Amino acid sequence: MTKLSELAGSRDLMVNLTLRELRGKYKRSVLGWAWSLLNPIAIMLIFTVVFRVFLKIQAPKGDPSGLQVFALFLLCALLPFNYLANSMSGAMGSLVVNANLIKKTYFPREVLVAANVVSWVVAFLIEILVLSVALMIVGNFVVPYIPVVLLLIIVETVFVLGISLMLSVLNVYFRDVQHLIGIVVQLWFYATPIVYPISFVEHGVSSKALVFVYKLNPMVQFADAFRNCLYDLKLPALVTMLYLIGISVVTLALGFFIFLRLEPRLAEEL
Questions:
Q1: What is the DSSP string of 135-150?
Q2: pLDDT digits (tens, 9 = 90+) for 87-115
């Protein structure tokens, strides 16, 4: 309760750190915040050429929307994954980069990690807005599903914050973490139905046990839920939402627990 009280009293610090993250994200770059759109667009074009043109992977028709555009099918799952990957990458350095600040004064160190995550939430919201406009241009009227998309973003933020808290403090004690996570993110990307539909796994893997384990991956469920709302124009299954809320809360609790256990020696380790 004392820690929660400290966090509640650090609202102004949280706002200032988040603004600092936002200002510094594309500082001295000519295009500035346009990079938050250009990066996923570039990735989309690369994967579209490789998987749609060369490998001839056809995007499934949206059910019931009827939409069949590979680039939009890809983006609906790519943007949530990029949000996770960017937040993880930024979180690993959030404590190390601010070592001088941590050594000089006491404040809830979790605020540094949370500010990093919130800055990526802003970029994610901009990307989702642009994607929604693109979907409406091609005939997918996503407006009624925007509240559910916003709920999914909140739930994913809880999940991402839990992972970020773990990685940030572990990276202080074990600097190998930042190198290991690069490999983990690549494996996680292809273990998530981003460049392929989830039906490939459901129909292509004979073992139901393996399919069940595959679907335990939270990003599989997040990708499917975002596609349900934006690409298919239907609500995610209730069991999917309950699973995502449950796993996100557990991840945040675990991340917070690990952070609190390792926080006392942060200044010494830095």
A1: HHHTT---GGGHHHHH
A2: 999 888 888 887 787 777 777 788 889 88
What's the alpha-carbon Rg for the chain, to the nearest Å? 19
In total, the chain counts a number of residues equal to: 270
Both tokens of 168, joined, read: 């940030």
Integer Cα distance of 127 and 37 in angstroms: 6
The string of DSSP codes covering 141-177 is --GGGHHHHHHHHHHHHHHHHHHHHHHHHHHHH-TTH
Tokens of 131: 């994607």
Domain count within the chain: 1
For helices 146-173 and 177-190, what crossing angle results, to 10°?
A: 150
List the domain range (segments joined by +) for residue 108.
2-269
Contact call for residues 168 and 91 (beta carbons, < 8 A): yes
Sign of the torsion formed by the C-alpha atoms of 174, 175, 180 and 184: positive
Give the integer Cα–Cα distance in Å for 235 and 230. 9
pLDDT in tens, 169-178: 998 888 778 8
Closest to 249 in 3D by CA, of 167, 158, 177, 169: 158
**Coil/strand/helix, residue 9:** coil
Is-contact 247 225, C-beta < 8 A? no
